[in-house]
Amino acid sequence: MSDTSSFRALMASIANHPWFQPIIISIIIFNGLIIIAESYQPGNDLLLVLDTVIVWIFVIELMIKLTGLGIRGYFKNPWNHFDFAIVALSLIFYNTPLVSVLRLIRVLRLIRMIPAIPALKKIIDSLVRSIPALTGILGLTILIFSIYAIIGTTFFRGVLPAEFFDSFHMSLFTLLQVVTFESWASQVARPVIAEIPLAWIYFVSFIVIGALVILNLVVAVILDYLGHEDEEVNKQEMARLHEDNEELKSEIREIKDMLQDRNRP
After folding, report:
1. Helix, strand, coil: what percent of the chain each, to 5?
2. Is this structure's pTM higher than 0.85?
């Protein structure tokens, strides 16, 4: 084995070592604590030094994975594209005068926690796979909001101050406030109902449809895709067991035929 191959094998063994990922997760958490500390003590020299050390630790991690897994093997995982971009941007804006950009990149480093922890990665992957189904629910949501915004603009304009139902986009924002239950009763619903008693039908129906039905649809879709991943894993496991069972049956038949051949006179 050449020196290059042995070095690559060494890097691969380090990248796949059971302790490698937990150490990186610990560093990411420590990085988050440093970011929090910097919000209390901006410009602290010790914190800046620690942040610089963490940046170069991430660079070393990147080089270990690139060397051990190979460029094609490393970028085969979509999450590694994000990791590479964060590390590259951290180096590009290492001494930049754009403080806000540098702080944003430091915060984005915390997102690296997602692919590092399997449970978080599973949830995000399920969310990404559920996007096509969620677009249908998004279209339904836009339709319902638009209908109720038009109704609100038509019937409630002038009842409340102009920032509530005086225009279509203002009505949309008011409905967003209602669907999030942010002071919707005292600030929006009750004053309107005091002027238009039947307005309670409008608000109650919108909350039932917008907040309860649509939200439950979103939750149901996401949970369904979370279950799909478990089903796929179970199917793969069952397929593997079936293949092993078929191989075992084939070997048993061969042994049986051999024994029969030996016992023949």
Report:
1. 85, 0, 15
2. no
Note whether 189 and 203 are within 8 A (CB): yes
Q: How far apart are CA 26 and CA 22, in angstroms?
A: 6
pLDDT digits (tens, 9 = 90+) for 37-72: 877 877 777 877 887 888 888 888 888 888 877 778
57 residue type, one letter: I
Measured in Å, how far apart are the chain's first and last C-alpha atoms?
A: 53
- Under a CB-based contact definition with an 8 Å cutoff, are residues 174 and 146 in contact? no
- 135 burial (CB, 10 Å; 0-12 / 13-18 / 19+) is exposed
Where in the chain do CATH 1.20.120.350 domains reside? 3-116
| CA trace torsion 164, 166, 169, 174 (10° rounding) | 20
For residue 144, count CB atoms less than 10 angstroms from its CB and return exposed for 0-12, middle for 13-18, buried for 19 or more.
middle
| Range list for CATH 1.10.287.70 in the chain | 131-250
Whether domain 131-250 has CATH 3.30.200.20: no
The per-residue pLDDT for range 165-220, each reduced to its tens digit, is 888 888 888 888 888 877 778 888 888 888 888 888 888 888 888 877 887 887 77
CATH fold of 3-116 reads Four Helix Bundle (Hemerythrin (Met), subunit A) (1.20.120)
